Amino acid sequence: MRQYIKSIVELNDNPKSRVFAYIVQVLILVSIISFSYETVPDLEPGTRKILRAIEVFCVIVFTLEYLLRIYCSDKKSAFIFSFYGIIDFLAILPFYLALGIDLRSLRALRFLRLFRIFKLMRYNRALAHFSRAINRAKEEILLFLFVTLILIYFSAVGIYYFENAAQPEHFSSIFDSLWWAIITLTTVGYGDVYPITVGGKVFTFFILMIGLGIVAIPTGIISSALTKSVDKKEED
Amino acid sequence: MRQYIKSIVELNDNPKSRVFAYIVQVLILVSIISFSYETVPDLEPGTRKILRAIEVFCVIVFTLEYLLRIYCSDKKSAFIFSFYGIIDFLAILPFYLALGIDLRSLRALRFLRLFRIFKLMRYNRALAHFSRAINRAKEEILLFLFVTLILIYFSAVGIYYFENAAQPEHFSSIFDSLWWAIITLTTVGYGDVYPITVGGKVFTFFILMIGLGIVAIPTGIISSALTKSVDKKEED
Amino acid sequence: MRQYIKSIVELNDNPKSRVFAYIVQVLILVSIISFSYETVPDLEPGTRKILRAIEVFCVIVFTLEYLLRIYCSDKKSAFIFSFYGIIDFLAILPFYLALGIDLRSLRALRFLRLFRIFKLMRYNRALAHFSRAINRAKEEILLFLFVTLILIYFSAVGIYYFENAAQPEHFSSIFDSLWWAIITLTTVGYGDVYPITVGGKVFTFFILMIGLGIVAIPTGIISSALTKSVDKKEED
Amino acid sequence: MRQYIKSIVELNDNPKSRVFAYIVQVLILVSIISFSYETVPDLEPGTRKILRAIEVFCVIVFTLEYLLRIYCSDKKSAFIFSFYGIIDFLAILPFYLALGIDLRSLRALRFLRLFRIFKLMRYNRALAHFSRAINRAKEEILLFLFVTLILIYFSAVGIYYFENAAQPEHFSSIFDSLWWAIITLTTVGYGDVYPITVGGKVFTFFILMIGLGIVAIPTGIISSALTKSVDKKEED
């Protein structure tokens, strides 16, 4: 009996296990869409009831799945404290906590339901690759993130020096200028703050000519780490 | 006789076939420009008549071309149901459908005329390369598109959490926040929505530092797949 | 005598030729800055006189340089009709034309003075590399520029379909929508036009996810052609 | 005694030297945050006093560190005029200068305190790599920066020609147009200035299709120089 359930719950070539995995993935997506839909303002009471029913249904299935996985695993405590065991637990925890506590203080708790997305990692090779690639390039990313942060800080100090007098409402302190620096150096450029003095514009010119190459480095490291990890997969 | 027409209709070293191909390409472009011009508001009745005449002329030529291609092909049904056979058919279909139906309901139908652009693929090696490269990297693109979508979703949930109270008109729900997330992470940054709270700005800072590398991955895969396909072509 | 002048006018290890090259380059830059300065509105008559004097001085030197180069060259007609010979001629032509014609109609002519920038190519290896690299990758660039243009056109048609009814002033025709398409797909995102309907936003989402990789290709080809050309230089 | 202090002050495997290095790094960060915080407008007098106390404390420690480093070094004058010796001196100089001069004229002097960031270079391998990589690729960067500047200048002249008549307040001279050119070609796109004429939009279209590849080159050179330098590190 336990072997039979195990062959279904754990993803393998068994067609039944594929159906099971498919159902769980669909429910995760349904649960996430329902979570997003709850944030739409002025929902009708009828809609709220449906969303609540979907949530209850999802939690029941996820709880059953969690219990089955514990039941199937050879070493129960090992599963419970494994990465996926904790994720499975956190995915249902907020619901049961909410039953006991007053609903008003639950705003932050509600967001914990999003841990369910990580349940998808079990089925998605890309996500697993991704977290491994990040892990391997961790040191490099941190080192160059540091260089990037220093550049952003220098840009903020520079623009503060040039623009503070002309636009005290937008560049009131170096902290405010940091917002400009990050939005400009990543080339997002919302247009909510931008230099208007000649000095500030010339400074922006130089920062952009030099800075784009530097800000692109952590990005490039992540990309190349992922590409390497994909190439390695293909070799296997 | 059939062999002679075939040598003209199918692109080869025959100079006449080059002239034929050139005429068809020019007519496709004329037809697309005419289609675009029709959307200009408040056209004079005279202009409308000219555009209509161009359209009728193009359709007649494309119909003749279609019939000639059927006539020339060795296995008629094989051509009709081939990729290019269907494209050639769809390129003239809207016109003949429009003759039978009331003109008011034709808005969506009108856009079907754009299938003519795909007729250009027959003559453009880059487009053929492009669709083959996309096809080969399909699985990878889908996997990392999924990672990107999760990142975008997380950004949307985060910014909703920080900005909803301060800007309920711009970040009214997670669906609205998704718009901000995609416009920011692709660095388009229209400036129609942007965070104004300190928490939202700090969150944007971290999302941008980490996220740009991830959003760039599907883009990078397409680019590298195309580059490989170009290099392979050069080796031939 | 002619050999002596030639050793000065043509750039080589001779220190005098280096000084000559340096003077010409400085004068080109002075002449370009002076050209830019003339466009500043409401200049004082005194400033105008100085700018005019600078222009006259530059043209005299460039004319002398041109005559010396003709005098030095072994085959006079070969130099006159060579790339640099024509550039040298075009750099002084607008001034002499302006002496004969009424000054009012000279707006377009004035811009011809910018041909002087190309005179710098004689001294700048990067510029020479650049034009050679572009030349070599010409066919590829054109092929993929075509794919990019089709993508931009499709984006414009799509956004026109979604946004025309909601924003007839910004998306009045497909030509207007093309402006949105190029500004969005290059991620410039001025924020002067952006979709406001749900359909338009979802469409933008998909276009951005797919399109960024495609628009980046001509850019990538230019970059890689240049990098190859730089590497080759280093091997020499 | 001197050997003992030297083993602490200079970073090595000695655990005490690690603690010393850690304290100095924390103080640099504290000093930079305190510097940034001073720029916040309308600080309470109490906060000002605390910030002043932090500054005095940091300077005392940095002065002690400087004196110890001189004391430890085998050739005193060699250290004082070395890169790090000068940086250490500049990091404390503004404070002592400020004691002697009237406080009003110190705005520019205040920014000299930021030299302290460079003190971090002693401890951060990434920063050292970075400056070495930039140094090695210096010539290439300058050559292509020049090509980029010419492209930006041409874009500015072009847009001035198209937009000056329609928007004399935004494109009043070529210098003003340069601001548009840099913000557009780096794809920042604040949206403070953008073309509104058909000619200007078509020109922007072509500039963007061609220009993005060129502006990306100096950026690409910095990135690749850094990547090479990182790979070399890994080989060691």
TrEMBL record, chains A, B, C, D:
InterPro entries: Ion_trans_dom, VG_K_chnl, Volt_channel_dom_sf. The lineage of its organism: Bacteria, Pseudomonadati, Bacteroidota, Flavobacteriia, Flavobacteriales. It is found in: Membrane. It is a multi-pass membrane protein. This is Ion transporter. Keywords: Ion channel, Ion transport, Membrane, Potassium, Potassium channel, Potassium transport, Transmembrane, Transmembrane helix, Transport, Voltage-gated channel. The chain crosses the membrane at residues 20-37, 49-68, 80-101, 141-162, 174-191, 203-226. PANTHER family: POTASSIUM VOLTAGE-GATED CHANNEL PROTEIN SHAB, VOLTAGE-GATED POTASSIUM CHANNEL. Residues 18-229 form the Ion transport domain. Its main location: membrane. Pfam families: Ion_trans.
